[in-house]
Amino acid sequence: MEASSADSAPRGGEPHPDGKLTRERMLACALEMVDREGIDKLSMRGLARALGRDPMSLYRHAANKADLLDGVAETVLAELTVDPNDTDWVAQLRAVARQFRRIALSHPHVVPLLVTRPLATPLALRPRGTLRPLEDVLALLTQAGFSGADALHIYRAVFGFLNGHILNELQEIVENPEETDDLLRLGLHRLPIHEFPNLRSLASVLASYDGAAELERGLDILLAGLPTVSTSAM
Amino acid sequence: MEASSADSAPRGGEPHPDGKLTRERMLACALEMVDREGIDKLSMRGLARALGRDPMSLYRHAANKADLLDGVAETVLAELTVDPNDTDWVAQLRAVARQFRRIALSHPHVVPLLVTRPLATPLALRPRGTLRPLEDVLALLTQAGFSGADALHIYRAVFGFLNGHILNELQEIVENPEETDDLLRLGLHRLPIHEFPNLRSLASVLASYDGAAELERGLDILLAGLPTVSTSAM
DNA sequence: AGACTGATGTCTACACCGTAGGTCTACGGA
DNA sequence: TCCGTAGACCTACGGTGTAGACATCAGTCT
């Protein structure tokens, strides 16, 4: 008996960790694997191996692999909390934005899921945890006196910008981190000089990218510009 | 001879279209398939079938499947043209933005590639066609009198916003297009009323989303705000 | 002319994948 | 006591990406 159960969970994690397998445990483990090795290294079989279970048991807690990925995205997004009762809506949105950035940076491999999964699913069918921030921001803004339409508009502007920003920030990858010369560090020396003169000349600027500052400046522009245009154009 | 060649390319497209298989032809076919059925329905074998070739021949023109996907993204992005000599940089950026939106909307299934692929590759190793718009925008802005650093900053702001916007716009999916009632059309009736009151009450606003207008308003805010902050904060 | 070389296409094979369908077990309520 | 149901497991099927060996052929050099 022990032989067969040991055989059914041969490699990796504990053979039978303890107690039952819950959706949370499964998602937590999946998140850990994605954080470590990236999305496309996550397989149902590999996840089951890490949990010490049979691959098929996962389907008790997730309908699909797609559903599992949705769950991972939801888990990460659940770290984001919005206080709909804050009376200073600008400050609250800033706080949310900083939070969002921090979460994205600490789970960079999940970001593709965050931006990509909603493209496949109509709003109302998305995992509920995903809709929570939307609902809460709407509450925040209507309590601040905005109409529903304007609230939605502001939500879209802020989160659109936020998604764009973290996509930008996560693209800053240094090729040879140990190099001291910026041009070599970024690998820009391979670009033909006559084809990409501007890009090459920006090596030092590219190397000193400051994501946090960039986010703040974007928010400055956005939050300053938003209320002035919001009602007039709709 | 004919028998064996017909056997090697059994289903789908022409058996041996004509002439050689080029990278362009392969990418064009791949793009077509992605546009039709989405990214994850694209397999090397399926693509080969559609081309009437052996799956392995694809590897003469793409190192990987990843490389092939990069190629598809590059192909699409190549439709984007920037005129670096336009003396009105604001107008030119607006034109680029509208172009970008149009391209993204006509290849919605490629958008995940566009926003996601650069996350894996350091700037200098990205497909050249992908860097072309960046270089050209930098040229446009430095010719307009901006410093390199400011030019880069503006590029990031605009394209970050652009990415965010189209991610937003592509999320607008109606569940039952034939329904007339907005709440049902969007499927919002499934959301528990007491948990998502704000969201549910916005059915009509959600249903009348106008992407083009939204883009213009965002550009208004961004382009108005950008020059005023650009040098002062760096 | 003949040999060599490199690009291109083809075939086979391998390890891995997602998951349909069925079975075994344990348990809680009737 | 019996049944229903939830959880876990096993087997099996039809796919996947791609390594590695081989075939074909155009061109180039001798």
Describe the structure.
The structure is a homodimer of 234-residue chains. Chain A has two domains: 2-62, Homeodomain-like (Arc Repressor Mutant, subunit A); 83-230, Tetracycline Repressor, domain 2 (Orthogonal Bundle), CATH 1.10.357. Chain A is built from twelve helices and no strands. Chain A has helices spanning 2-8, 23-37, 44-51, 65-77, 89-106, 111-116, 128-143, 148-170, 182-185, 197-201, 203-207, 211-230. The model of chain A is unreliable at 1-14 (pLDDT under 50). Chains A and B meet through α6, α7, α8, α10 and α12 of A and α6, α7, α8, α10 and α12 of B.
List keywords for this structure.
disordered N terminus, mainly alpha, 60% helix, 234 residues, DNA-binding, Tetracycline Repressor, domain 2, 2 domains, Arc Repressor Mutant, subunit A, homodimer
Give a short summary of the structure.
Two copies of one chain form a homodimer. Chain A has helices at residues 2-8, 23-37, 44-51, 65-77, 89-106, 111-116, 128-143, 148-170, 182-185, 197-201, 203-207, 211-230. Chain A is mainly alpha-helical.
Given helix and strand content, the structural type of chain A is: mainly alpha
Mean pLDDT of chain A: 89
Strand-and-helix sequence of chain A, N→C?
HHHHHHHHHHHH
Distance between the termini of chain A: 70 Å
CATH class of the largest domain in chain A equals Mainly Alpha
| Total beta-strand segments of chain A | 0
Q: Most extensive interface, residues per chain? A: A-B, 67 and 67 residues
What is the fold named in CATH at topology level of the largest domain in chain A? Tetracycline Repressor, domain 2
Shape summary of chain A: flat
Helix content of chain A: 55-70%
Oligomer, anyone?
homodimer
Q: How can the largest sheet of chain A be summarized?
A: none
CATH H-level homologous superfamily name of the largest domain in chain A: Tetracycline Repressor, domain 2
If classified by CATH, what would the architecture of the largest domain in chain A be? Orthogonal Bundle
